[in-house]
Amino acid sequence: MIIFYPVLFLIGALILYLVAAVLAMLVPVNSSKISEETDIEIFVQTNGLHADFILPSKNSVYDWEALLPLEMETQAKINHIAIGWGEKNFYLNTPTMSDLTFPTLVKALFVPSEAAMHVEHRRYRPPTNDDARSIWISEEMYRTLVEYILEYFVIEDGQPKIFPGKGYHEYDSFYAAHGKYHMLWTCNNWTNAGLKKIGIKNSLWTPMDWGVFFYLD
User: Fold this and answer.
1) pLDDT for res 1
2) Per-residue pLDDT at 201
3) What integer pLDDT is reported at residue 37 of this predicted model?
4) Domain residue ranges of the chain, discontinuous segments joined by +
5) Is residue 55 helix, strand or coil?
6) How confident is the model at residue 11, as a pLDDT?
7) How far lies 200's CA from each of 59, 60, 96, 186, in Å?
8) 43 strand-pairing partners
C-alpha cells in the first residue's frame, strides 16, 4: 500500500497532464494566413522528443555563424543551424531515446531544472517530411524570432556561455540558457511560444512535439 498510492498518484497526474495537453493543443493561436511578404524559409524539426528551429546559418538579417562558431574547424560549408532549448541534464545525457532513463524523465518533468541551448550546424536543407516542416516568413518575422532565441542564451564577456566538449558530435554544441525547465514549460513549449510570437498558427499550449506540429502544414 505504501508504494501503491504514490504510483497511482503519478499515473493519475500523467493522465491529467496528457488530457490537458490535448485540450490546449486544440485551441489555435494566430491565423493560418500571413499577410506579409515571405522570403525566408525556416524549419521546425523533431527528433521524436524535441521540436527545434532550423534556420539559415546566415543571411541579411542575422549571422548565426559569427555568434555560434563550430568548436572544431571544418572545411564543410554550413548552410543551416538547428537551435533548441531544453533541460540541461536531459540534453547532455540523453543523445538518443535508448539513453533515456526513468529517473531522468521524472526529474525533467517534476523538478524545475537548469536549462541549456542545443546548437547543431547543418550542411544541408532538411527534407520536409513527418519530422520536419518548412515555413516561409518575412524578414520582420525572422528578426523577431532571432530576438526571441537570443534572449535565452546566457552571455558572458560578450559571448554565449558554452559547455566545452559536451556535444554529441563535432557539429553540435551546448550552451547555458536562461529559464527553468519543468512540466509546464518544456522544450516544445519554447518552440511553440517562438512560433506564436512571430504570428504562426500554433497550439495555445503544448509540452509535446506533436502539439507543435498539429497546425503546421
Assistant:
1) 54
2) 97
3) 83
4) 4-30+40-213
5) strand
6) 79
7) 21, 22, 29, 19
8) 54, 134
Which cell numbers in the block locate residue 89? 541534464
Sorted by sequence, the CB contacts under 8 Å of residue 186 that are 6+ apart come out as: 86, 87, 207, 208
What pLDDT is stored for residue 217 in this prediction? 80
Beta-carbon contacts of residue 193 (< 8 Å; ≥ 6 apart): 148
pTM passes above 0.85: yes
Number of Cβ within 10 Å of residue 101's Cβ equals 10
Q: Which residue positions in the chain have pLDDT lower than 50?
A: none
Q: So what's the pLDDT on residue 211?
A: 97
Spatial separation of the C-alpha atoms in residues 186 and 184, rounded to whole Å = 6
Alpha-carbon 10 to chain mean position: 26
Q: Is 36 exposed, middle or buried (0-12, 13-18, 19+ CB in 10 A)?
A: exposed
CB 71 within 8 A of CB 173: yes
* Contact yes or no for 53/149 (Cβ under 8 A): yes
Count how many Cα atoms sit within 13 Å of the Cα of residue 113 in the half-sphere of its side chain.
22
Q: Which pLDDT does position 207 carry in this prediction?
A: 96
Residue 6: predicted pLDDT = 66
Cβ neighbors of 142 (< 8 A, separation 6 or more) are 40, 42, 55, 59, 61, 62, 198
Q: How far apart are the first and last CA of the chain?
A: 48
